[in-house]
Amino acid sequence: MKHYVKVVGSLVCALLLVFTFFPVGTLLAEAEEPEGTGPKVDISVDGKTYENISDKTVVLIKDIDAVVIHILSVNGKSLTNVGTDSGVVDSEGRPVLEVSKTEAGEGVWTVRLCYHDEDDPDTSNHGAGFEIVGMQFKTSADAKIATPDKAAVKNVKAVKKGTSIRISWKTAKGAYYQIQCATSKKALDEAKMVKVAKGKTSYTIKKLKAKKTYYVRIRKVTKYNDTLGNTFAVEGKWKTVKVKL
């Protein structure tokens, strides 16, 4: 019995020492954030989309001083007007998207992106703060950056079927499609974006209201690879059709 009491006492002392030097919050924080996790951030650099960027992302550019960066989404949440040329600042006049560049070599810059979401006047963007440290931007006169194909989708047609609209088009090699639908052209920018897989040539928009006029638009998104192995997407021109149910 005495031996049992000594063992239990030793265990209690050990636990007290652990929590003295490592508070409960610290232990829980380490358990909740396993190594390798981080925000999934989609950005647009000079009009090219890079998905799930990280501190290992390398981006080819032509001119570091003319680079335009936009944050498209963070962990699946789309952001509105968050970019280096948006002009959005906090109450003290500081850009809510903080970008710092450090020259790491000839034609190579290490870039840090930090989005202060709580300082953004657009409250719909709140809850999406992040920091990416160690992206690399490289300039190269010999870099072979694919020429974007921005042509509009071809042979777009829309047919009404009761309270649904079926839109069809001619498929483009290697492209997927984005479709939006709204009751006015202005409302299209805020409408839900539907992604249609490559190879598909039609999509049906359901549960619409009868005796209403709808505007449906579609564009193709083509993916490219640059010479560093990055995959980025280029958005084509919108093709809009008008349909009255």
Overall geometry:
globular
Number of separate structural domains: 3
Helix-strand topology string = HHEEEEEEEEEEEEEEEE
Give the low-confidence spans.
1-8, 11-36
Report Rg: 25 Å
> Which range does the strand content fall in?
35-45%
Largest sheet: 9 strands, antiparallel
C-alpha end-to-end distance: 85 Å
Question: So how many helices?
Answer: 2
Number of strands: 16
Which structural class is indicated by helix and strand composition? mainly beta
Write the layout of secondary structure elements.
Elements: H1 2-21, H2 24-32, E1 41-45, E2 48-53, E3 58-61, E4 69-74, E5 77-78, E6 97-105, E7 108-115, E8 130-139, E9 154-161, E10 164-170, E11 175-182, E12 194-196, E13 202-205, E14 213-225, E15 231-235, E16 239-244
Parallel strand pairs: 3-8
Antiparallel strand pairs: 1-2, 1-4, 2-15, 4-5, 6-7, 7-8, 9-10, 10-13, 11-12, 11-14, 14-15, 14-16
